[in-house]
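Hey, resending since the last one bounced:
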Amino acid sequence: MAPITDPFIEQALLTAAAIFTIGLLGILLRRNLIVILMSIELMLTAVNITLVSFARANNDINGQLMVFFIITVAAAEGGIGLGLLIALFRNLKEVGTAKLNELKE
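The structure tokens again:
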């Protein structure tokens, strides 16, 4: 397999790595459910950028097709996450993750 020489790929991968790192830090450092959901969306966006970059480098459409599935998963995750957020706020008047176990009652 020949090395990839397109400068776009390097820039896109560096950008994706930066976005993924920001998302990972958001999950690890924050205990707010809204920030955690946004961080997961950032991480999924970074994966999308990576897939599109490699699909362009290899002249293959499979990576771009996978992006549609990831976008669908992200939309479902957003809907479920917002539902949990509304239930948490209605019951506990707080959106922190520390009291998520209290919703079992």
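Residues 7-104 form a domain with the Helix Hairpins fold (CATH 1.10.287.3510).

Sorry for the duplicate.
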